[in-house]
């Protein structure tokens, strides 16, 4: 299912995007990544989801798949995606995906070269966490309310 939400004040080409993020459910919990504690990045030391910036020519799925492999060594098949949405904010387009994998997929996870740690959290715990990135709390809430 793909749904988009557009702010009428935004004027962007929907085929152009800057990056993508993905919530990956491993069983009933979600994979989170503790961002590096570097002052020059947004939300240092906060809990994030895998994903990041687009490389030349990538589709939204290619971008988030590559980033998830790089950050967590997790190979999420496209058929695992259960929800996606485009978000338009401040003249940029970002994609947000939700995928579901079996609990056994936890064995695949290994921290890449970004982030300090990874952790499986219950969705409600992420939504209430004081060190969760607020915009991603909202996007997770969007998915949970659409289910």
Automatic annotation (TrEMBL):
One of its GO terms (molecular function) is catalytic activity. InterPro entries: NUDIX_hydrolase-like_dom_sf, NUDIX_hydrolase_dom. This is 8-oxo-dGTP diphosphatase. Residues 4-144 form the Nudix hydrolase domain. Pfam families: NUDIX. It comes from Shimia abyssi. Signal peptide: none annotated. Gene3D superfamilies: Nucleoside Triphosphate Pyrophosphohydrolase (3.90.79.10). It comes from the Bacteria.
């Amino acid at each position: 299912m793909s749904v988009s939400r557009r702010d009428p004040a935004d004027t962007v080409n929907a085929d152009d995007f800057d990056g993508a993020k993905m919530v990956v459910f491993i069983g009933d919990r979600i994979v989170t990544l503790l961002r590096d504690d570097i002052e020059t990045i947004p939300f240092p030391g906060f809990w994030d989801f895998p994903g990041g910036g687009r490389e030349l020519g990538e589709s939204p799925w290619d971008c988030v798949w590559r980033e998830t492999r790089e950050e967590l060594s997790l190979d999420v098949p496209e058929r695992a995606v259960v929800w996606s949405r485009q978000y338009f904010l401040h003249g940029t387009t970002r994609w947000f995906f939700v995928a579901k994998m079996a609990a056994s997929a936890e064995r695949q996870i290994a921290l890449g070269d970004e982030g300090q740690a990874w952790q499986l959290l219950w969705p409600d715990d992420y939504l209430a966490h004081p060190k969760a990135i607020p915009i991603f709390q909202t996007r997770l809430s969007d998915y949970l309310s659409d289910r």
